[in-house]
Write a structure and sequence with these properties.
Blueprint lengths: L1 H16 L6 E4 L26 H7 L6 E4 L10 H8 L2 E4 L4
Parallel strand pairs: 1-2, 2-3
Length: 98
């Protein structure tokens, strides 16, 4: 019984370390808008579409495991943004041409 309880505890601790709600945010320098949600690589409706700047995507990405995907384009960000994203466990990925 003790062995089973220890195994159960180990599994629960492992699962609790995995981000439950990791999100993906999209950035598009050409077609994005910082008033959009960032939750879609394309404008869909209302405020659903990519954000325009890395700064806005970083503001929205707050959880370990969150990912920021950028469309082709030129982006600038303050130098301190990189270490802050790394500390939060946020990944930035360059997307294929959209």
């Amino acid at each position: 019984m003790i062995r089973c309880t220890a195994l159960t505890l180990a599994i629960l601790l492992t699962l609790s370390a995995v981000p439950a709600h990791a999100m993906t945010y999209y950035v598009d320098a050409a077609y994005g808008n910082d008033n959009y949600s960032g939750l879609s690589p394309f404008y869909i409706q209302a405020d659903i579409g990519p954000v325009k700047t890395l700064a806005k995507a970083f503001e929205k990405a707050q959880s370990v495991g969150d990912t920021i995907i950028t469309a082709d384009g030129i982006y600038s960000a303050p130098p301190e943004m990189g270490p802050k994203m790394e500390a939060k466990g946020i990944t930035v990925v360059k997307e294929l041409n959209i």
